[in-house]
Specification:
This protein is α+β, with helices and mostly antiparallel strands and 401 residues long. It is built from nine helices and 21 strands. The radius of gyration is 22 Å and the shape is globular. The chain starts with 14 loop residues before the first strand and ends with a strand.
Length: 401
């Protein structure tokens, strides 16, 4: 059982740091008690609930506990009365103030992830405008967001009905091939490239009207020769790390091309610290677009709490061969790059003079060689959904560090 801090002695807390090597944790102790407890929580039994995702989430939470000097409390138990302040590592973005209140979340130091006011704000649907002002929209929809991020995203629409999706798709097809994307799918799964009206109708007819009304669907211009950038920032305790990098695709056990990891350059500090670095022009554009998206979201949806932000930014060629770039989606939750993010935070905490580093997260499906000896392995085995999968993280010095 966790034990929280007592009142300070003569107005000043007695601070000690104890290391429990056998359990791999360090706790900050005040007057013999831990200051808080880190817990993991799966918001539902569906998304992000497979073995490899749970194992990764648990190991990241253990490391966050060390970074914060908190106790690691394992899975959140709703029936348990916690005497310590909680630091929550949820499987997904929390929706609504009531959900945040349930866990005592008041600010970014209370969770790894984010809290948003409406469900659509946490999905791909946020990234695009509706086809027109009369289109069906969920409660809380802000038309201004789409216009404010227009230069930071690709051409596209979000739709919450078959009628609106068909109108949006028809407009996009006048520009060239388009892509239909389910808003809650991850790793690039479930997307379909559409080249004509018949294909558009076939895909839309397969969609459930109730699900479409609740979640929506994204229709977006299709690019070729794509590079997908990851741009993000994490804030834990007194540490801030910001990064850019590129993603890799890999075949999963069914042969579908899915997320295979990211190679990141991570700096100590905020977006300004990152942009002061000598980074490639494509990455610089991606960082600027991600930052514009982030700024618009925080301005137009006041009260959001975000401690982990990640943006996928695609750069590629449209059907005319013109180079295009734009934010595809946001992730305000623990994600595929989080193991690399944690590795950077650990390095920055251990070496106060370190300002930049490289970190890679790798996901391999099927049989594979053993990870390198210096890798941090998050999962290696058979997952009930994904099949055989190996996940690990590598770090390396940065030339400019």
């Amino acid at each position: 059982m966790e034990h929280c801090a007592d009142a300070p002695i003569f107005g000043f807390p007695l601070l000690m740091v104890l290391s429990d090597v056998s359990r791999g944790r360090t706790m900050r102790i005040i007057n013999g008690n831990a200051m808080g407890v880190v817990v993991v929580h799966a918001l539902n039994d569906g998304d992000y609930a497979s073995s490899h995702e749970k194992a990764s989430r648990t190991e990241i939470a253990r490391r966050l506990a060390v970074l914060k000097g908190f106790e690691f409390g394992g899975d959140y138990e709703p029936e348990r009365r916690y005497s310590c302040p909680l630091y929550l590592v949820p499987s997904d973005t929390l929706v609504g103030a009531e959900e945040a209140d349930r866990f005592g979340i008041r600010g970014e130091h209370h969770l790894f992830g984010g809290v948003v006011p409406h469900r659509f704000v946490a999905t791909k649907a946020l990234s695009h405008s509706l086809v027109d002002a009369d289109a069906q929209a969920p409660a809380g929809w802000i038309h201004q967001f789409g216009s404010q991020v227009e230069g930071a995203v690709l051409a596209g629409f979000s739709a919450f009905s078959h009628w609106d999706a068909r109108r949006a798709g028809t407009q996009l097809l006048e520009r060239g091939p388009m892509r239909i994307k389910p808003v809650r799918a991850t790793g690039g799964r479930g997307q379909t490239v559409i080249t004509n009206a018949d294909e558009l109708n076939d895909v839309l007819e397969s969609m459930d009207a109730a699900e479409l009304s609740e979640d929506g669907v994204v229709l977006e211009e299709n690019l070729s020769e794509v590079t997908t950038y990851s741009v993000g920032q994490v804030r834990v305790a007194d540490l801030v790390a910001t990064y850019y990098g590129t993603q890799r695709l890999t075949p999963d056990n069914s042969g579908e091309a899915v997320y295979g990891g990211s190679d990141l350059v991570i700096v100590r500090g905020d977006f300004d610290a990152l942009l002061r670095r000598d980074i490639p022009e494509g990455a610089r554009v991606a960082v600027a677009q991600a930052r514009a998206y982030d700024t618009a979201a925080m301005e137009l949806f006041p009260g959001m709490i975000i401690s982990r932000r990640n943006y996928d930014v695609a750069e590629g060629l449209d059907h005319r061969g013109v180079r295009r770039s734009g934010v595809l989606e946001q992730s305000w939750r623990i994600g595929g790059a989080s193991s690399a993010e944690i590795a950077a935070l650990e390095a920055f905490k251990a070496d106060q003079g370190l300002d930049a580093m490289r970190a890679s997260c790798i996901e391999i499906y099927g049989r594979s060689e053993e990870p390198p000896p210096h890798a941090t392995v998050y999962f290696r085995g058979h997952d009930e959904r994904a099949g055989l999968i190996t996940k690990y993280t590598l770090t390396a010095p940065h030339a400019d560090a």
